[in-house]
Structure formats: C-alpha cells, structure tokens
Amino acid sequence: MSKYHIKTLEEYFQVYRQSVRDPELFWEEVAEEHFIWRKRWDKVLDWDFDKPAVEWFPGARLNITENCLDRHLTIRRNQTAIIFEPNDPSEQAQHISYVELYRKVCQMANVLTEMGISKGDRVCVYLPMIPELAITLLACARIGAIHSVVFAGFSAAALAARINDAECKLVVTSDGSFRGGKTIDLKGIVDEAMKDCPTVDHVLVAQRTHTKVNMQDGRDHWLQPLLDNAYKDCAAEQMDAEDPLFILYTSGSTGKPKGMVHTTAGYMVYAAYTFKNVFQYREGDIYWCTADIGWITGHSYIVYGPLLNGATTVMYEGVPTYPDWGRFWHVVEKHKVNQFYTAPTAIRALAKENLDYVNRYDLSSLKILGTVGEPINEEAWHWYDENIGKKKCPIVDTWWQTETGGILISPIPFTTPTIPTFATLPLPGIQPLLMDEQGKEVIGNPADGRLCIKFPWPSMARTIWGDHKRYRETYFSTFPGNYFTGDGALRDEVGFYRITGRVDDVIIVSGHNLGTGPIEDAINEHPAVAESAVVGFPHDIKGNALYGYIILKETGEDRNQDNVRKEINDLIAARIGPIAKLEKIQFTRGLPKTRSGKIMRRILRKIAHGQSDQLGDTSTLLNPEVVQEIIDHAI
Ligand code: 6R9
Questions:
Q1: Interface pTM (ipTM) of the complex?
Q2: Which residue, judged by its Cα, is nearest atom 10 of ligand 1?
Q3: pLDDT tens-digit profile of 56-113?
C-alpha cells in the first residue's frame, strides 16, 4: 500500500497509527517514493526539542529543482506546469510547459551566477505574481542560493529591514505591478529601500508595466536581455538535506520580523506529500491556489508542492475584485480548475456580493475546495459549500503556519469527514496536543487549550535566521519539549480539532499576520504620540481589524485629531504596509497597566470587542480609573 495517496478512512487511520508508532519508518517510505536523491540519507531523523535541533534525512544529497523539473522532462515534458493568468482579463494567459519552465529556470540560474551569486548567498525577491517570481525561486534553489521572498505589498522600510536582516546580495524586482485598476511603482519602492541596504550589489528588474523607472548604473540591470543571452541548461547544485532552501519572514509579537529558515530535504518531502493528499491531485488536474507567493501558502502550494507532483498550477496576478466580483469564478471556468484553494477573507468578501457574479460561470470542473490562513466562520463555509462547490466538493480547512512549512491539520477529501469550522484531523506523522495555561497536557475529549505539536515533522522551520535563541524562546520555551503554535484550539468528543485563533499578540487581518509590536513601534514614531496599544476586534470581512488606543503627549497645543489619525495611519503604511492600518483610533489619557508596568491587553481587547461588561479581574491594575474613561469613549 502506498502511503503516498490515502484513499479511504480506514486507510487513513491505519496510516496515521503507523506514522505515529514509527515516524521514521513512515517518512523514510514516503521519501523513497518518487524523488531523485543524489545520495541516500545516513539516518532519517535526529532531534532534540530542548536545544532545539531537528535534522531530517541527514547525509542525503539532492536538489529540489531536479524533483520539480528534471524528473518530469521525460514523461510530461510538454504538459503545462504553470498557467499564468494576468491581472487584465483581456491579456492572454500564458501556458508554460515543464520543458519551458526548466529552460527558463536554468537561464535565470545562470544569470544569478553571472551576478556573483553562489551557494548559500541570500537573494531577495520582491516581485508581483508574474512567472518570473516562480522562476526566480526555482533558479535560486537550482544553484543553492537561499531565496527570501518579500510580499510586494510591503513598504520600503519593511523591505529594507528584511533585506538587511538576511544580508541579501541581490534583489529581483520589476518595474511595477498591476493590482486591479492600479499600477504600483515597485522599482520606486526598491530604490527607496536601497538607500539603506549596504549588502546589495545588484538589482535585477523584470519588465511588467513598462513604466519609466530609474536605473542606477552598475547596480540595476534589466532582466530580460540577460536571460536572452543565458544558457538554457544549468547543472543543479548538490545540496545537503539540511542546507537552507529559503527564508520567509513572519510577524512576531514584538520587535523585528522573524526570518523562518526552511531546509531542503524535509521541506521537499512534506510539501510533496501533503499537496498530493490534501488536494487529492490526479494526473491532468488543474489546480489553483489564489494566495500570493509572498506568503508561505504560495511557496508550498503554488510552487513547490504542485511542481514536485508534476501538477499544473495556476498563478493569478490580480485581485478577486477585478474587473468585477466574478473574476475568480471566471478564471475557474476559463481554465477548468479542479482544485481551488483560497482564504476565508476572500470568501466573506465575495459572499457579500450578488450571486449573479457566481452563477454566470460554469464551475462544474471543481472537485475540491480549500481554505487557509484564519478560522473560517460557519456562514462563509456554507456559502462556499453551496454556491461554489454546489454541495459536491469537500472543503479542506487546512491549518498550518509559515513555521510549519506545510499543512498539519486538514481533512483528506473523500476520505476523512469535513465539518464546518473544523480543520478536523492531523495528517499522518503529525502529533498535536492541547496544553492548559499551567503547561499540563489536557487529556481526553472534549478539550480546549493551546495547540502544540510533540514530535518533529519534516518541513518544520529549523531556526530563525541569525537568532536561534529567539526561535527557542518563541516556540519551545512556553511548553518545554513541545513546539508551541501560538494558536488556541478545541478538540470535540470525537477528536476533531477546531482552531479558535491566536493566543499571543499576533492579529490576523484579512489573512495577514500582523504583530502588535511593530505596529505600536510605528505609531510611537509620531511626534505627538506618547504611548500606544493595538488590539484586534472582529470584522465582517477581514476577520479581524485593528483598534489602536493612543495617548498623545501633553503639549498644551490644540491638535486636529483627525489629522493626527491620518498621519498615524500614513506612518504605519510607510513602516509596514497599508494592510496594517488602524480601523479605529481612540485617543485616551491612560492605558490599563499592571503593577509591573505591562499594558493589560486583555482589557483593551474586551472593550474593542464591545464586551466592557466582561472585563474580569481588574484588581491587579495600577490605574483602574482609566478603564471607565476608555469604556466611555470607546468607538
Ligand atoms: C498558512 C498560513 C499562520 C496562522 C496560524 C493560525 C492561522 C492558518 C488556519 C488558521 C484557523 C485555519 N491559520 N490556517 N486558523 N484555521 N485553517 O496561513 O501561515 O501566514 O504563518 O499564518 O494563521 O492562527 O497560526 P501564516
């Protein structure tokens, strides 16, 4: 029996039990199927969650792109690997076959080498959702360079911080990007960032919008002429199993972003395995994930997972609302999409619009629907099930994180049950548990607690770039011996998991993780601000929105508060990006604090949620009197 493709519930339980009894044997068998290894591993796993140190398949040598590309050149040479659907529906879609993709990746790899990039160097990728983005990732992997993709919605300051943290030598960007009706000046943002990025020698610029940009002599180079002159073959660098494949930043509760480091062999095995099972991908299917490759979902389930499986993966450049609310469904019809994977925030936004936008299109190609990024509410789940899946497509509510590299908890379509709002069951090899606040495991069902994982899985992040101590403290110190996810969850009578949301200071807005710390740092830069605290509150479409409580300095001046509100949001947009703007800003004279001076966010959260009558114990506050004032002026 192949563990690679689970087909029945019985098989799931059998495979799951075996995977937990002997994880090493289980993953060894998965690794033995379907991959090209240049040298076999000496051992399957070495691990110690106290250090923490995890190594999968140590001793093995491989290149992930030989598995994404070369391996397919015999049997599916001319099959489409990537369908590029442009922002503008009147522009023709591109179908890039496996052999064409192979050549483009090799050319790009040769260009990078010519620019002085070699194994272990970091390359920052700041590109819109155009084929060059996927090609650059694979080109880096081809020569062993470590890619660090920065979502092209981040500001110059956020980009510079990420480039500097990873000490990138080269940036790949484009002249501009198309997002719905807007054109964004990406190169201008890169120029701004470059004022503060001493490690960058070269910037490669793809042409997309054909807008006029500034090109700095010696530093900036148009990409296309270099590609045109490059060889279409490039030997794959042989990597150690644990050599880093990429860095991807995620928000933390405080301070600077965390560069999660993913390594080669384990990530490859897990991305391939989960793609195949969670989306029940069959030869010839057309698969579409609407995420941006700037996030982990795009890395694992637009690029690596699908290509490792020889799939056809759709890359969509634009937004769900352009030219109208029917665009997603138009694309599904046009490319006959079989698996469709999106975020609850998109579903909620589309569900608010007229059903005509859906019913205009033939969605009969769809077999499986997926969601990711945040909890899905019951209403959105049913809307998706009824109107998009026509009650015939299982919905995989996939729970995972940048840190986990791949999906950990999810239904397996046609095999394990789906339940609205439940991510349901752990995938084979994944051992979740719930902890109470005292750090004791909650045994039995039903239960709720903090979600941890007690055993390593192949695609877990190995460290935070340049800060292993922070990695240990963030993920392995709250519940020693376990990986702590930062999420709360409940487990029902049967053992199905439902993720309830973050229990730390990360707020998920429209599926984007935002740390309160960096936002507060940006607010506090405003000269009129003395102190601030940001919390989340429920929002119909975004899932959560941001509520800022801000103390202004006492200067005796009379300020126009609306101007200050706008200036604060402009600052946030400049430091982080427009996604982090505050929906509500309340000026206050004080913030509730503990005697040790910590802001009691729990209270602010309750007020923002409109639950001022449920504040709980406020007796430990240093300044209980400010609470009433905040309640009286709540927005
Ligand atoms: C893949 C991705 C991770 C956080 C995670 C959790 C939330 C993701 C979810 C979900 C409920 C799901 N999350 N999937 N919550 N149900 N199916 O989104 O990675 O951007 O790092 O976010 O997203 O809170 O901890 P990332």
A1: 1.00
A2: 374
A3: 999 999 999 999 999 999 999 999 999 999 999 999 999 999 999 999 999 999 999 9
CA of 364 to the centre of ligand 1 (A): 29
> What's this model's pTM, rounded to 2 decimal places?
0.92
- For 569-633, the DSSP string reads HHHHHHHT-GGG--SEEEE-S---BBTTS-B-HHHHHHHHTT-GGG----TTBS-THHHHHHHHT
**The predicted structure's pLDDT at residue 1:** 45
DSSP 3-state of 192? helix
Cα(407) to centroid(ligand 1), Å: 10
pLDDT band at 255 (very low <50, low <70, confident <90, very high): low
Question: Ligand 1 within 6 A of 502 CB?
Answer: yes
CA gap 435, 449 in Å, rounded: 5
- What DSSP string describes 303-316? IIHHHHTT-EEEEE
What separation in Å is there between the alpha carbon of 300 and the centre of ligand 1? Answer: 14
**Is 397 touching ligand 1 by the criterion CB < 6 Å?**
yes
Among 296, 384, 396, 399, the mutation site with the greatest number of ligand 1 atoms within 8 A of its Cβ is: 399
Looking at every residue in the chain, the average pLDDT score rounds to: 95
Q: Write the CA distances from 284 to 8, 332, 454, 470, integer angstroms.
A: 22, 15, 37, 44
Distance 375 CA to ligand 1 centre (A): 8
